[in-house]
Structure prediction request, 233 residues.
Amino acid sequence: MGPLGETQAREQIAACTRLLVHEGIIDFSGHVSVRLPGTDRVLIQPRDTSRAALTADDLLVVDLDGRLLDGDEPPPSETALHLCVYRARPDAVAVCHGHPTFSTLFGCVEAPFLPLRNFAYRFADLPVHPDTTHIRTVEQGEAVARTLGAHRACLLRAHGTVVAAPSVEELFMDCLDLEENARALVYGSALGPLRPLTPEEVRALAESYGRSGYRAAKVWEHYLHKGRQAGIL
Prediction:
């Protein structure tokens, strides 16, 4: 898929946000952003607009320094989180900060976030950022970006998650997979000793999944139809 134009990016952010609300990844708080390729312009939702009702026309445009370029509403208080990830990660096109229940639990307990489901090979070494407060300043955002590093996601201690991806479709898939693996860890631990993926299995799965690059588009299309059937899109 080629680079997103602004109209398509707006439509994808609105759909992704509504779907993530429906799937419990985002609630009344949390946000998805997209960097328009080849620019320093980022689309992000207003601070106070309901995530469940977000439309393409609601979205704001900010630059990588946080200046509001288009829109009348204030951006989210944690916009610096997104912008600092984009500055540190040239490969990142889309970023999500959410508060999914099961993933967030692993920033609150000593139990490690282990790759249990086969798709979770992508999260085999998930880092946890130690700051429990809201990521409002550039300094805090830069610290999150350092914790995230080259990873697809990180946990914010006792707070939520940060996911960065090269497309909205991959971002949506990663958000779902991260939470599903966390749910599997919680439920699986009640059944008996966990059997997380071994390093050898992680390598084999990376090769296996690498041969099916269509998965993100397949997941995205499936949930678009689910969203339409549920009346949220």
Q: What stands out?
A: Residues 22 and 52 are 8 Å apart (CA to CA).
